[in-house]
Amino acid sequence: MGTALVTGATAGLGLELAWQLATARHDLVLVARDGDRLDQVAGQVRAAAGVRVEVIAADLSRHEDVARVAERLSVTGAEDGDDRRPVGLLVNNAGFAPAQHFVGGDLEVETAAVDVMVRAVMMLSHAAAEQMVSRGRGAVLNVSSVAALTAGGSYAAAKAYVRTFTEGLAVELAGTGVTATVLCPGFTRTEFHDRAGLDTDVLPDGAWLHASEVAAHALADVRRGVVISTPSVRYKAASAVLRAMPRWAVRAVGHYR
Fold this sequence. Notes:
Elements: E1 3-7, H1 12-23, E2 27-32, H2 35-49, E3 53-57, H3 63-73, E4 87-92, H4 107-135, E5 138-143, H5 153-173, E6 178-183, E7 188-189, H6 192-195, E8 209-210, H7 211-224, E9 228-229, H8 233-244, H9 247-253
Parallel strand pairs: 1-2, 1-4, 2-3, 4-5, 5-6, 6-9, 7-8
Helix pairs in contact: 1-7, 3-4, 4-5
């Protein structure tokens, strides 16, 4: 079934995507910062799904670590004398919301967020797309957010980049046998919001999506070659409203994470 590389693979949506891909008999390359947790997840997946699992412990805010992951994505297998299997699906999932206001906040945190959610997405997509186009098949799945349509600070700005970048990539890849899909979920029950220090108690139960449903929707859209994947009717409707609203009204809504 091919090999998939997933960043941010030890928690939340990345972990769910990894499990669903393994269940569908994809071999995996899992990327995350925490090497111990990465090894634990890899062992569990190997034992339960019986697929090959490579691990790359990498902090995607570090340029040298991004370069190591990009090198793995560039592998074409037997064509370049490398016994590693080429990656047929790249999932750029790693990301985080800076738990601070931009003004008065730690600029190093903001820079790290841009490195992980903008620079790494660009670099890894470039490495993967070149390898995939040379073989005439493959897919890139970049994780954005409905927040990309809001004025929700630097996190929303990074996710807006991912959305627009992926749309442009999809246009460029047309006819090559390679596709690009951007996933734009709404609030999803993962560790993400706790790590960002966000109060989730104010949201009604109906606002939440389950990671398993989001992952299944995303992978189904990748298989169909859908460019913009927005799970659930309610978030499709919310996205339509946000696109139709004048920007002054979007700004008045306030921050969305």
